[in-house]
Task: structure prediction
Amino acid sequence: MAGIIPFDDRDGSLWYDGKMVPWRGAQTHVLTHGLHYASCVFEGERLYAGRIYKLKEHTKRLFESARILGMKIPYTEDEINRACYEAAEAQGIVDGYIRPVAFRGSEMMAVAAQQTKTHVAIAAWTWPSYFDPAEKLKGIRLDIAEWRRPAPDTAPTNAKAAGLYMICTMSKHAAEAKGYADAMMFDYRGLVAEATGANIFFVKDGRLHTPTPDCFLNGITRQSVIALARARQIPVHERAITKEELIGFEECFLTGTAAEVTPVSEIGPYRFKPGKLSETLMNDYSADTLRAPAQARVTASA
Result:
């Protein structure tokens, strides 16, 4: 724990239920439904040079995740968009990470929770690359997770819901204990799915191949990278990918708000060589995060 600054003991303020509150004063009771029953949805957003990348898309997904879980967020999407910037401005950051979270309160403590209030909090903090920069350039190493992504008729797989990340944490901890940076997960059918918090792409003969997101999130960064690739006339194939195909791919990379575009050199026994296509999309994505129409630059006073 040496050197770690706990997230409940920091200076500044965050947005909580419609107003800015002292960071250390943003308290939630231990008998909150979101803690006990995972009735919680969230987003992860990056702030680049004072602009939150794809903010409207993130907020729209937050509301859709809440809808899927039967929660009604008591604010409009525009109010949440403005609040995200307020949270960043309160911390005085122009490059960092934004975390909106919506969760059921403590009015009821049982599986049924129709009378609970939906709370919303938004915090912002500085956060560098998710993976070590030196390791990222040469390609990170992934383990193969024991846990599989669930079928869409067994879990709300289209929601960015807290409960779905339990097996991700377990898989990432197991991978890191073995010296890996992360883990790749198969789905309930045994097909390639994603990493613990990022989507995955493969390269073969100048073409991109990525799993169809039919039981995991169609990531916002994933969608951006596909658009950037197609803008360069790079063919993109969204399809089922089997374990047996892994040996034939040349390059591999992850995409996500936290991961951005991160090359992969190993997945268990499979080897890849970070190459030109991965580097090109890394650079294109980096440029895209700093490029935005004027109306996207919402401010707290808007």
In short: The chain has two domains: 13-125, 133-289. The first helix runs from residue 33 to 37. The domain at 133-289 is CATH 3.20.10.10 (D-amino Acid Aminotransferase; Chain A, domain 2).
